[in-house]
Amino acid sequence: MKYKDASLPIKERLDDLLGRMTREEKIGQLVQPMGWKTYKKEADGTVSVTDSFKEDIAAGGVGSLYGALRADPWTEVTLETGLSPRQGAIATNEIQRYAIENSRLGIPILFGEECSHGHMAIGATVFPVPLSVGSAWNPELYREMCEATALETRSQGGAATYSPVLDVVRDPRWGRTEECFAEDPYLIGEYAVQAMKGLQGDSLDSDRTMVATLKHFAAYGSSEGGRNAAPVHMGARELHEIDLYPFKKAVEAGAASVMTAYNEIDGVPCTSDAYLLNDLLRKEWGFDGFVITDFGAIQMLVHGHNTAANGEEAVAQSLRAGVDMEMSGFMFRKHLNSAIEQGLLSENDLDAAVRRVLEMKFRLGLFERPYADPDLAERSIGSEAHVRLARRLATEGVVLLKNEDGALPLSKSVGKVAVIGPNANHTYNQLGDYTSPQPRGQIVTVLDGVRAKLGEDRVPYAPGCRIKGDSKEGFEPALACAAEADAVVLVLGGSSARDFGEGTIDLKTGASVVSDNPWNDMECGEGIDRSTLNLMGVQLELAKEIHKLGKPVIVVYINGRPIAEPWIDENAHAILEAWYPGQEGGNAIADLLFGDANPSGRLTVTIPKDVGQLPAYYHSKRTRGKRYLETDLEPAYPFGFGLSYTEFTYDNVRVSPERIAPSGEATVSVDVTNAGAVAGDEVVQLYVSDVTASVTRPEIALKGFRKIRLAPGETQTVTFRVGPEQLQLLDKNLKPVVEPGEFRLLVGRHSRDLTACSLFVTEEKSL
């Protein structure tokens, strides 16, 4: 059997294996059932495969399993019923062993797992959500996070991850904003490249790398009204220049898999869009991996998009368009064979998809090394090194939005600091969506972090209220708590915590209360879209009552989308935007509050003053229209904004040479000085403005950034290269071109604080 001979080229092995397979076996390779239903955990902790899984293997096999290690309320896998890091590796080995030893050809299974901000398994490290990671403006640090995540996942047998999310945020009312890096395609593209390096490494056939799946392809973050999976109304130029750009960068960096989006673009569902999946992705971009659907996406072609009359038409549309594997496998398993028999698909169509899936298994080395290493899993998952990395990422991702009269950092001799608010001590509320059940001791809340600095006696606590709901029964103890303190840390925001059955918080005592019907504060996350951006419940009223006490009030937001609350912007003495900072969030926030770390996060999404200003992303066209009657178009906080405990000055912005050919390159430089008294990190940002063009252009567009650390009084010259990639546009035929003319190169601290110089592009013969 040539396909078992590792010394042969993959193509030769593929040809041999494909030639031996029955149609049923081929279809089996394209389905991905729910993995957590394939095993059962016995009372003694051992794992055995289920009868239903055995039946699937006997019926033709299973190509892949989704979320065998995933634990959350949807899977109904809990801390008690779930698997430890070691047990998880043993479980995938048992599943894999049964599939190999009880199928005719012994083809190994590909285990696919969710890893949006860490491996979604019990015991794994919970890193900050992508919105927080993006706010660090440190793609290289994100690469380290991806390396850690790949190690934790592959060590348990997971060989593919459904990340990174490369969607461009257009409307932050969208519940999945937290899963995205930014509203800017260039910034997302830089993170995409580092994700490929961190997740896939130099080779897929190792015990610490895995397949990265780009999602959601495409324009998923640009849905109508910010509603999940709603239609996308977009022209071809905008689609290519904005939403497709990060995907193209990731494909160029070697991405091995792509996931289709639920939405349609201009009437064509992405799951059946042959232009996106074949013409563009494979033929133009040269993508050589496999395409998988999102869960239930093919059903939507029949019930939702209604482009198919029945299941056979739906699977034919998707497979012909370029889909290779179906997450869930419901439609492929039920309708694919009959679609071929009805002539809607050919055997060649089926073989093309099977070939791409099998090729990835060969590239992963699964035929030679199909089993995980339980010892590696046990020592790698949740390791101290990964926890330290989570703390650094959380620290760099926090954005200081306001610091009136130097309210921060707090002195450790301040006296008492009251920690108040619904997110002050709620573990799941600071973790974000796509998170597994967590033991309490693994999560450091803001209360934990502040008490670690000052001691429990100096840090009174009260929750005050919940995220949602109109109960004010917690106001009185919260006000009493604040009254005895010298300063108040008020932790407000949102929650993407699904109902883990862990109980809720008693508003009078702050104690955890186990309940058969725990309060669900979820106001963000997948499928949780909003019509406003204000704080929910009575949080704003709580803030106003505490403010009346006359104490310094430091607001800490823990949330998954921008919050528009002008009263807090005006009246809080300081504001920290922490997003969902992960398991080490409390330590990171406490370090920043007391000056043990200097804030270096910068916004990657614009924060509007009011939801009525949407869309509010910074890269709007010059022709964006006039102001509203009630308000102007200026945001509360612009893209790229963030304060520090020191001051940075910019001087001597220059470009050399000042004239280049369309294919030429220049350098733009700026001198940045730390004019303050403490060391700090600054994010130096480069934007480009095309003064006159043949098509309308964004007023400015980010084209470079550099995060630098400066000691007090230190000056550093930061230089950016500017060439065709930074200057080009898509012409009327959607072809990339650098047009002659003037370009303004703008350098500064954020998108509303820039210093410009001019670069002129001249035809070659004029130089």
From TrEMBL:
Biological source species: Paenibacillus antri
Record family assignment: Belongs to the glycosyl hydrolase 3 family.
Protein name (database record): beta-glucosidase
Signal sequence range: none
SUPFAM superfamilies reported for this sequence: (Trans)glycosidases, Beta-D-glucan exohydrolase, C-terminal domain
Entry EC no(s): 3.2.1.21
All copies of domain Fibronectin type III-like, residue ranges: 682-751
InterPro entries: Cellulose_Degrad_GH3, Fn3-like, GH, Glyco_hydro_3_AS, Glyco_hydro_3_C, Glyco_hydro_3_C_sf, Glyco_hydro_3_N, Glyco_hydro_3_N_sf
EC supergroup of this enzyme: hydrolase
Catalytic reactions on record: Hydrolysis of terminal, non-reducing beta-D-glucosyl residues with release of beta-D-glucose
SMART domains to which the protein is assigned, alphabetical: Fn3_like
Keyword list, A-Z: Glycosidase, Hydrolase, Signal
